[in-house]
């Protein structure tokens, strides 16, 4: 091994190990890159001490070595390992004696130039060992004295060869070397690796990914073909909609509960007021999530093998997404009913709008038009499908007349339920139960985050039921819709205390049909959704309407982006509205050449730039609960912005009227439609601004409505069907609607027709509404009505007279310890009829709903949670006693 010296880099202070033959050369530090050159130290390293031999037991003391004069310097000699000396023959060792230590072999070592040579060996060479080359031979020394004791068995005899001398090994201090920065040019370069290695690895990985993707795609296709073949074999022509996941009609059976649910939710209406679907976590569709939760609590199968949950939601992101248009919805109801079995129990939920027209009730699909019965779904047709359905239990949940008080209603559909509609929705044939989310004169309310309060109540009750300990259900038990309706009703009545009332209503009748559960019967078949008619692509529709895109008249009235999914616009009809190649910049540079187009572009541009909301635009709500002098000053300031918008809209209306004579020369249908749309929009928005300014004036005249209860937290502008402005303003609004009607007629089957109808149905009237101060009820909204979702419901008996003696026994058993003896809490004493009637409101004879006693029992707040609960019979007894007059 080549000898090295140590040095310190003057740049980074790193320890350098330098081959001895490079000591006087320029070299580069690997760490900092500085070029350095060695120089000799001025001081002379100390002479090396002679190595000592390993003493043998009982050997004489080592003689003092003779000092030799320093030898002249000579170049280092490469180390040549000496031939190993013959090892002495091992002798048997006696027990209990230590083994002699092995003797190290000596090898000559090289030394750097100009360093003094080590002292010669102070011992005589042993027999059989050669002298080191180029080293002077040491003087002869007397041989060691013989051992003073007799040789023991197993020990070597006297004269045993001594250990070889240990040569001089330089210490790190002797090998230290100083360095200084060199002035020699830097010629050292780090060796570069193969620059093609990285790209080659990347290409190999990409190739592997592509090959793997092709392989797995082929595998997936083959697996899909295999599944289809299995489905075809299983169906045997009996059920074309069955799959290997749900082999309905194939003869395969399951232990799943015989229950099914069709869940339809519509929120993105074209012509009716939009509904609030709520927002789920991580972009999840909230209506779909609640549908799955209800299905879980009602034991409706949802796994792949036996899935009986069908969800149709226009806010869903499922791969089988279908818009809830009339054709898709009608086919879904028909197929759902026709594929159900005798032993099935079926549920149909519809969340959307419902209207009554000429003595008939209709459900509104996403493209339904106000007053156009041909675009609506008659509730009679739905009832007829379920009447013919084989299922033994049929439940309809109608979540209609929805209204979001925070968003308002700028389009039709969110009016309170009329007496006529209430009656028609509950006129179901025998054997069909109907639950509506509200009653006559009421709305079903929505919240921005949670969506439908009716659906939210079902979700809350499902969570509460999960925490209760109820007996395990069985597949032959019916869905206890009556008990769930009562629980949801109680929850909403508590939640909406001090707010508008929403009363859940259960109507219809239970089916007298009873079919035993049969797990050996083939599964009910899953049906396929109807295919949506195809038209031009969404890109073509959006491109055609790009110039007509404007901010909504109200903040929540934006143009829908799903027109192509709802309407199959004909490609041939759309060709007439293709762009003729004249750019907008060219039109703006030459208004004389294109007068109609210039006026149209200018009007639409003004609306886009000026029509804004919020602090710097149109305000739709005011948080001040009182109208003081400062509020009046703010109202005056808020009128300045709308006044400027009004002037600009008036100017654009006149400009559009001025170029009307040039319409005959305009040949492009696209620009003719745009002109009509721009004219109608300037008229509508001018009339709306006048209505808005009049509403702001009511603040200055103290004409705002007063809250019915409590204090007002603020006021908001809600849409109203009728305008309160002057006659000339209302006439201008009617003129705009006539223009939109003409536009719809002249451009049938195109996006321009839809655009015209959408804007024609928008309400321009405004009215102030009170934002009530949120009042928390005394009882927290955590009522837990009696719920046994899987218990077999009993027929509701007619109210019978119940004696107080029977009720008294129940009250003494469950209530008297806190409200009788030994204490009387909350001034309530239930020991006697007189003491009960003494507490005002505790019992209202003939009206259980107005009685605090029955309210506490229904809400499950009394008895306390740690006390024994009342049975269903005991609760019914107390209710019947109150309803019978509490005598």
Automatic annotation (TrEMBL):
What UniProt keywords apply to this chain's record, in alphabetical order? Answer: Membrane, Transmembrane, Transmembrane helix
Q: Provide the GO MF annotations for this entry.
A: cysteine-type endopeptidase activity
Transmembrane intervals: 196-217
Pfam families the record matches: Peptidase_C14, PSCyt1
Q: Where is the Peptidase C14 caspase domain?
A: 329-458
Chain residue ranges for the region called Disordered: 43-164, 234-253
Q: Which residues form the Cytochrome C Planctomycete-type domain?
A: 815-866
The GO annotation for biological process reads: proteolysis
List all Pro residues biased stretches. 62-75, 82-121, 129-147
Q: Which domain of life is it from?
A: Bacteria
Q: Which SUPFAM superfamilies match?
A: Caspase-like
Biased segments, Low complexity type: 44-53
Q: What is the designated name of this protein? A: Caspase family protein
In its UniProt entry, the species of origin is given as Limnoglobus roseus
């Amino acid at each position: 091994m080549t000898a090295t010296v140590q040095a310190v880099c003057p740049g980074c202070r790193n320890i350098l190990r330098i081959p001895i033959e490079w000591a006087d050369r320029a070299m580069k530090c690997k760490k900092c890159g500085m070029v350095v050159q060695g120089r000799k130290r001025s001081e002379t390293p100390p002479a090396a001490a002679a190595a000592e031999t390993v003493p043998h037991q009982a050997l004489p003391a080592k003689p003092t070595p003779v000092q030799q004069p320093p030898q002249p310097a000579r170049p280092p000699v490469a180390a040549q390992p000496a031939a190993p000396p013959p090892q002495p023959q091992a002798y048997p060792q006696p027990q209990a004696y230590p083994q002699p230590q092995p003797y190290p072999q000596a090898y000559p070592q090289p030394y750097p130039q100009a360093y003094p040579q080590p002292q010669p060996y102070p011992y005589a060479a042993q027999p059989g060992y050669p002298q080191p080359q180029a080293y002077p031979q040491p003087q002869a020394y007397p041989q060691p004295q013989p051992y003073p004791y007799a040789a023991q068995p197993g020990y070597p005899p006297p004269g045993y060869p001594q250990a070889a001398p240990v040569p001089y090994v330089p210490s790190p201090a002797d090998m230290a070397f100083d360095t200084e920065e060199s002035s020699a040019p830097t010629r050292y370069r780090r060796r570069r690796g193969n620059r093609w290695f990285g790209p080659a690895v990347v290409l190999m990985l990409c190739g592997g990914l592509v090959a793997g993707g092709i392989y797995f795609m082929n595998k997936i296709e083959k697996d899909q073909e295999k599944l289809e073949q299995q489905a075809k074999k299983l169906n045997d022509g009996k059920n074309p909609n069955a799959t290997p996941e749900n082999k309905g009609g194939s003869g395969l059976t399951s232990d799943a509960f015989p229950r099914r649910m069709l869940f339809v939710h519509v929120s993105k209406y074209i012509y009716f007021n939009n509904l609030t679907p709520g927002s789920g976590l991580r972009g999840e569709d909230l209506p779909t999530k609640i549908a799955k939760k209800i299905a879980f609590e009602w034991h409706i199968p949802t796994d792949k093998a036996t899935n009986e949950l069908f969800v149709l939601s226009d806010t869903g992101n499922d791969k089988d997404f279908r818009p809830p248009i009339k054709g898709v919805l009608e086919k879904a109801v028909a197929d759902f009913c026709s594929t159900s079995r005798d032993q099935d129990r079926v549920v149909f939920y519809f969340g959307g709008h419902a209207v009554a027209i000429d003595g008939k009730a209709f459900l509104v699909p996403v493209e339904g038009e106000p007053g156009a019965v041909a675009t609506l779904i008659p509730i009679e047709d739905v009832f007829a499908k379920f009447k013919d359905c084989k299922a033994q239990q049929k439940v309809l949940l109608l979540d209609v007349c929805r209204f979001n008080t925070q968003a308002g209603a700028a389009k039709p559909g969110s009016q309170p339920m009329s007496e006529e509609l209430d009656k028609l929705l509950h006129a179901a044939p025998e054997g069909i139960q109907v639950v509506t989310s509200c009653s006559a004169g009421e709305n079903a309310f929505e919240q921005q985050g949670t969506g439908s309060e009716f659906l939210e109540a079902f979700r809350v009750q499902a969570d509460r039921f999960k925490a209760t300990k109820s007996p395990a259900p069985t597949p032959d038990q019916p869905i206890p819709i009556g008990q769930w309706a009562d629980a949801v009703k109680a929850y909403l009545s508590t939640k909406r205390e001090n707010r508008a009332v929403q009363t859940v209503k259960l109507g219809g009748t239970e089916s007298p049909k009873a079919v035993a559960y049969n797990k050996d019967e083939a599964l009910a078949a899953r049906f396929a959704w109807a295919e949506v008619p195809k038209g031009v692509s969404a890109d073509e529709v959006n491109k055609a309407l790009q110039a007509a895109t404007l901010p909504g008249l109200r903040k929540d009235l934006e143009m829908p982006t799903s027109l192509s999914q709802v309407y199959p616009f004909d490609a041939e009809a759309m060709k007439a509205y293709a762009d003729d190649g004249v750019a907008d910049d060219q039109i703006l540079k030459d208004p004389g050449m294109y007068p109609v187009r210039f006026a149209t572009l200018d009007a639409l541009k003004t609306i886009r730039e000026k029509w804004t909301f919020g602090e710097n635009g149109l305000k739709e709500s005011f948080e001040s609960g009182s109208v003081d002098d400062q509020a009046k000053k703010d109202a005056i300031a808020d009128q300045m912005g709308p006044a400027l918008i009004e002037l600009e809209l008036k100017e654009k209306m006149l400009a559009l009227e001025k170029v009307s004579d040039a319409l005959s020369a305009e040949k492009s249908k696209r620009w003719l439609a745009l002109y009509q749309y721009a004219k109608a929009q300037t008229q509508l928005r001018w009339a709306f601004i006048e209505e808005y300014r009049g509403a702001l004036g009511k603040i200055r005249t103290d004409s705002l409505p007063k809250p019915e209860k409590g204090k007002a937290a603020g006021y908001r502008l809600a849409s109203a069907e009728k305008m309160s402005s002057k006659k000339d303003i209302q006439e201008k609004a009617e003129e705009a609607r006539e223009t939109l009607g003409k536009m719809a007629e002249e451009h049938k089957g195109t996006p321009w027709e839809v655009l015209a109808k959408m804007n024609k149905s928008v309400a321009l009237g405004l009215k102030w509404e009170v934002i009530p101060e949120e009042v928390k009820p005394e009882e927290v909204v955590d009522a837990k009505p009696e719920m046994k979702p899987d218990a077999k419901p009993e027929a509701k008996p007619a109210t019978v007279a119940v004696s107080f003696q029977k009720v008294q026994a129940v009250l003494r058993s469950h209530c008297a310890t806190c409200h009788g003896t030994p204490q009387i809490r909350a001034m309530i004493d239930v020991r006697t009829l007189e003491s009960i009637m003494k507490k005002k409101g505790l019992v209202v004879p003939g009206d259980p709903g107005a009685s605090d006693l029955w309210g506490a029992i229904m809400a499950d707040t009394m008895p306390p949670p740690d006390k024994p609960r009342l049975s269903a019979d005991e609760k019914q007894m107390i209710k019947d006693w109150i309803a019978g007059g509490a005598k």
